[in-house]
Design goal:
about 450 residues; alpha/beta; Immunoglobulin-like; TIM Barrel; six-stranded parallel sheet; 9 helices; 27 strands
Length: about 450
């Protein structure tokens, strides 16, 4: 029995020794493993900063297991994963924007899982992005027509050969057209067909290899129907008409006028300037509380045809009151009355692009006219002559004798002519007149 114990002990020692030898052998094999050598396929490249660059890593043989190859950049470390059996990998890297030509170096990190070959670093030349501008400050398009957008490149040398395709997009990312700009030193154009669904205001931009290369403040585009008449009167047999009052400089008579309107249960449309709503905010809120409609009468009441001709100034006059009225009164205006009734095609396009309809009048009361200051009966005659359904009458909140005239003519409209007085938007709805769509951002 003693000899059996001895034999068993010897066998156990031999077995342990064999396991130890196998372990040592595996360690030796592991330390002596011939790992792949990794290099950049190219050592030099060129790209506009801000655009993704495609580079390729190559190993001299396939990886035996999943391995991550690390690349040092000035912005941090990029990781490139090789799967088992792969010997080549292509990846796209983000490059930083630059304001002048710069060198961007990529370097492979050392690792026990691979070695770095002779091409272990890459020099990438970063160029500035092309700087594209719209030739016109505003683009006006009409449904079922072609719209031609002209472009200029201010630094044509930045447009790389083979990468010279530009896209025209709107704020939603929709691509309206593309153009291969073969000679960036000259202007080019992108044209597209305008459809019904494009109506309204759009912010156009130009894109180059996935990057916007125009100023986000530029590219204003106004699209509407061609030849559509503005609102001034409606030909209708329906017994409805509208009274409108422009509000610009004073609110001295406002409460008196509101009380007269309440007396006859009449709702009107008040066209107010940005100055008015900011200066007489509580009075404007009282108009809303009493159920009246609010329209836009510009920011500061300039003549938009002669005194305000720059696009950005016109936009300020048209758009700013929309925001002011929305913020202070909680109302999104849908009608615009031009100061002095003056406008041109560009102003009309911009008004409609901002989701409003140009609204003038059928009869001007002349309550603003010094010649009528002492003659309220002359104003009454003006606003009662040939009045019929579909008409729009113009008064002013600070006009001469306006409260007195309203108190006299409203019962005439109602009782003698049998007309119902409604807001302009209600009148539009009654006669089936659609208002322009809201800008894309508000839909």
């Amino acid at each position: 029995m003693h000899s059996d114990y001895i034999r068993r002990g010897i066998c156990m020692k031999k077995f342990s020794l064999a396991l130890l030898c196998l372990l040592l052998l595996s360690v030796c094999i592991a330390f002596g493993e011939d790992v792949p050598e990794v290099s950049f396929q190219e050592t030099k490249g060129e790209i506009n900063g801000g655009i993704q660059y495609e580079l390729t890593l190559k190993a001299d043989k396939p990886f035996a297991r999943y391995t991550v190859v690390a690349i040092d950049t000035r912005d941090g470390v990029l990781n490139c994963a090789f799967m088992e059996g792969e010997a080549e990998k292509t990846l796209r890297i983000e490059t930083p924007r630059v304001d002048k030509k710069q060198e961007y170096v990529l370097t492979l990190q050392e690792s026990e899982n691979y070695t770095v070959g002779a091409n272990g670093s890459m020099q990438l030349q970063l160029l500035t992005l092309p700087r594209v501008e719209f030739y016109k400050p505003i683009h006006i398009g009409y449904v079922d027509k072609e719209l031609n957008v002209i472009l200029e490149c201010k630094n044509p040398a930045a447009v790389m050969k083979g990468m010279n395709t530009f896209e025209l997009r709107d704020e939603s990312g929709r691509v309206y057209g593309t153009r291969e700009w073969k000679n960036p030193s000259s202007r080019t154009n992108i044209s597209f067909h305008v459809t019904e669904e494009m109506m309204g205001r759009h912010n156009l931009s130009v894109w180059y290899n996935g990057v916007c290369v125009t100023d986000p403040e530029d590219g204003y585009c106004a699209i509407s129907r061609h030849g559509e008449k503005i609102i001034s009167t409606f030909e209708t047999d329906e017994p409805y008409m509208s009274i409108t009052l422009d509000c610009a400089y004073s609110d001295d008579q406002t409460i008196e006028i509101l009380d007269i309107l309440d007396k006859y249960n009449v709702k009107v449309t008040f066209f107010m300037t940005g100055h008015y709503v900011n200066t007489f905010t509580e009075t404007a809120r009282e108009m809303v509380r009493r159920g009246h409609e609010i329209g836009n009468h510009s920011l500061s009441h300039p003549n938009l045809s002669t005194q305000c001709t720059k696009v950005h100034k016109r936009l300020e006059q048209i758009r700013t009151p929309v925001d002011d009225i929305q913020n202070l009164l909680g109302v999104r205006v849908r009608l615009f009355r031009p100061p002095y009734g003056a406008y041109d095609g560009e102003v009309l396009a911009m008004v409609r692009a901002e989701g409003m309809e140009m609204t003038k009048w059928t009869i001007d009361s002349h309550d603003w006219d010094e010649d009528y200051k002492t003659s309220p009966e002359r104003i009454v005659r003006r606003v009662t002559k040939d009045v019929k359904g579909g008409n729009i009458i113009l008064f002013h909140i600070d006009g001469f004798n306006t409260p007195k005239v309203l108190d006299e003519v409203i019962p005439y409209y109602q009782n003698e002519l049998g007309l119902n007085l409604v807001t302009v938007s209600q009148l539009c709805e009654i006669v089936g007149r659609e208002l322009p769509p809201l800008p894309y951002a508000e839909r």
